[in-house]
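1st attempt posting a full record on here, be nice pls
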Amino acid sequence: MRARDATDAEIAVAEAWAAGAAGVVEDEDGCLLTIYVTAAAADAVGRALRAALPSLEIAPAELVASIAWGEAWKHVLQPVEISRRLVVAPSFATPAPRPGQHWIRIEPGQAFGTGAHHSTRLALEGIDTAVCRARPRSVLDVGTGSGVLALAALALGAGWAVGFDLDPLAAPAARRAAGENGLDDRAAWFTGPIEALGPGRFELVAANLLRGELLPIASEIARRLAPGGSLVLAGLLEADAPGVRAAFAALGLRQVALSARRDDDGESWIGLVLRRA
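the predicted structure (as C-alpha cells):
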C-alpha cells in the first residue's frame, strides 16, 4: 500500500500493529508499506486502515509463505555507515569498526531505527558533527524511539543522555539497547511528554519528528536547550524548513547548518542544526 505522506504512513503503521499485523516493512521513503497479517487478522487490519485513512491506496492482498521474521530481518537490514566515526547496525551484525569508529547495534522491533531512513540518517549526521564539535556533557533525545540518537551521541563522546517517547514500547527498547551497547550507566529513559522533564537544560537536543509533532512542542524544546547548545532536527521535508526556522527563530535559535537527502519518490528530507542567537 502507498500512503500519501510520512504522516499518513505513521498512522497506517500504528493502526496496523494495533489491529493485529504480524509485520510491517517500509521502503526507504517511508510511504510504501508492505503489511503482513495472518488470515485471522486480515479483515480487522483492513477495516482499521480504511477507517483511519480512507484515501490510503491499498493493493489486493497476496498469499505468501510463512515468514520467520527473526531471519527475514537479517536479509533486509545491514550496517549503515553514518561517518568515519559512526556505524549503526542491527543487533545480529558482527561489529567490524575501523580505528576510531564506533558501532551502535539496535535490536529490530517496532521502536526501531538503523539509520537507513533518510530522516534518521540526517539526525545522526547532525549529532556526529555536533558532538565532535563541542563534546556535550548532556543530551536530550526527544521522541527517542529505539534510542539510537542518544546512544550515538554517547558513543561519540557525550557525557550522559535522557530519552523519552509517548510510545510505551520506546523506553524499554531504548533501555535494552543501552545495555547491549554498554551505555546503560550513562542514559535514562521514560515514557511521557516533554513537560514531564525537570527544569534542567541540555547542551545537545535532538528530535527526529515530523513537522506536525515538532511545532506544538517547539517552545518546550527550546526551553531545554542550554546557552550555546545545539539543536539537531530531522524528520522534516524541504517545504517544512521556512516554517520550522521561523518558529525557532522566534524562540531565540538560529540555523547554523542544513543538509538534505532526496528519496526515490523525489521528496527532499532535511536536517537542521540550530543554536541560540
